[in-house]
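Board work, copied verbatim: Cadherin-4
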Amino acid sequence: IQIRSDKDKEIHIRYSITGVGADQPPMEVFSIDPVSGRMYVTRPMDREERASYHLRAHAVDMNGNKVENPIDLYIYVIDMNDNRPEFINQVYNGSVDEGSKPGTYVMTVTANDADDSTTANGMVRYRIVTQTPQSPSQNMFTINSETGDIVTVAAGLDREKVQQYIVIVQATDMEGNLNYGLSNTATAIITVTDVNDNPPEFTTSTYSGEVPENRVEVVVANLTVMDRDQPHSPNWNAVYRIISGDPSGHFTIRTDPVTNEGMVTVVKAVDYEMNRAFMLTVMVSNQAPLASGIQMSFQSTAGVTISVTDVNEAPYFPTNHKLIRLEEGVPTGTVLTTFSAVDPDRFMQQAVRYSKLSDPANWLNINATNGQITTAAVLDRESDYIKNNVYEATFLAADNGIPPASGTGTLQIYLIDINDNAPELLPKEAQICEKPNLNVINITAADADIDPNVGPFVFELPSVPSAVRKNWTITRLNGDYAQLSLRIMYLEAGVYDVPIIVTDSGNPPLYNTSIIKVKVCPCDENGDCTTIGAVAAAGLGTGAIIAILICIIILLTMVLLFVVWMKRREKERHTKQLLIDPEDDVRDNILKYDEEGGGEEDQDYDLSQLQQPETMDHVLNKTPGVRRVDERPIGAEPQYPIRPVIPHPGDIGDFINEGLRAADNDPTAPPYDSLLVFDYEGSGSTAGSVSSLNSSSSGDQDYDYLNDWGPRFKKLADMYGGGEED
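↓ predict structure ↓
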């Protein structure tokens, strides 16, 4: 475009532009000739980047003064078809049920074109290029050219035949003109979903199994089915049910979640004597209902024959626990009842034997053949083995089947009480004041029997001896209690045995004469026995108490005198020992103060054990560096020169020379008495042995042999031997 002012004929005008694309980013997209006013584009433009520009043009004179008001310039970029349609996704996933009718919606694909959508450059159209597989028709789907909706166009979708279709969809702009438009493609994956259009069918019409009687949770038979629907889906999972042949509910059918097989399982024990076989009719279906229009197959029903095998069943007691009632105290050998068992194996000829399993008191016997129960001892209701008047015993009934079977039964014997226990007086001891009317003794009775063979009790004093009724009296309080008190005004303190006759209310009644020990004692104003009174009541008079105290004092005095005598005797014996001279003591006593060393007993030893052993293997194999301090070194021994021995006068000198000679001439001698090896410097020393030195008091001893001992003894040889120059 060119801009121009009407005043350019009068004055010189300069033109300029401002705005986005000029002096604002993007910068210098447009430029203007300041003299002629022509505008130019400086670089290629992209409508998809910016579709329009808004600029302002200015006109000023040479001095920069505004000549015209700024004008607005609107520049629009014309679209060109330079962009292909782009799918939102390169791969689209959709699904459709098998057996769907034509026109069923599947999925939608979408492509966008960056060009102007108001022109043909941006108008996209869709079409299906290919379909894989082309079964049962090559055109199973169609696509809406404008919206991209994919729908079924033909019938015959069957998942069991084709599970998935791959459809290539093409999007083209220029309204789908393949000659001028730009195109792009995407992949649509269509999965045919399963519907329950195949009923499950048994692989065979009859099944059979076998089960032992009295067993539960046992799998009798496995029912196999075939279903062409999607595995491990509700359309495939089988559901089994028994429709006839099991009215008592002995069996159920569970589905194996992995194999889809039906497991006929026993849930209620079967009895061979009642049913030897079962004929079941079973039906199979799916968890999901069949699709509309699909009928059940006749192969969805099958028969199952189950045989019951007989096993040896344990005998059982029809009445368990069995309760009988009888009086206690029946004599030994009394027949109580017959406790018999029944063997359920009617088709086996077996004998039942009876034995005791538990009889805590060992009161009963049972006939091993017929189960008759007799008493082996007298039954006592008051025994500790009775709980709530009931004695309980357990018996065993075993047959002779293979293998043997046994059952247990419990017999409960309710013992009716009889009056076989006389009452006992309580308490056994009591105390009372020596004067009446201060206190009384409450007495009662205990009876091991139960009502009506217990109270009310009758308490009375015997007529013999007559002093009992003279001194004591009984007052009845109620049926179970009475009071014992003094009849006379004063009774001397002491312990009295008061007999009392107690009679129960049984039929016939039983009585018992019980003795209560009553301590009669002086009492204080509160009615309590005093201390002196209690002692007196114990039966000891004043004279007896004094005699006891005198005996105690005499005993203590004798003990004290004995201790003093022992101490004095010990002191005299010690003084006598100090006065006796040990040398004058003629007693053959040996006083051992210390032990200096071995005596005669230590000299009886074998010196050969201390000599060098014939074999040194055990020593040579010892770890290097580990050696006892008194052990002779192993290896080559240095050869010391043997010097002449000069006689020495005197026995002591001869003894020393002999010992020295023995040490010099026997280097293998053990270090028992004279030679101790403290350390071993090694072999091959150039110096001689100092053990060859000989002490002598003579002044004319020859020291020339020191020259043979090496350089270490050269100085010593010079001092004593005179040196080589002599």
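Residues 364 and 375 are 5 Å apart (CA to CA).
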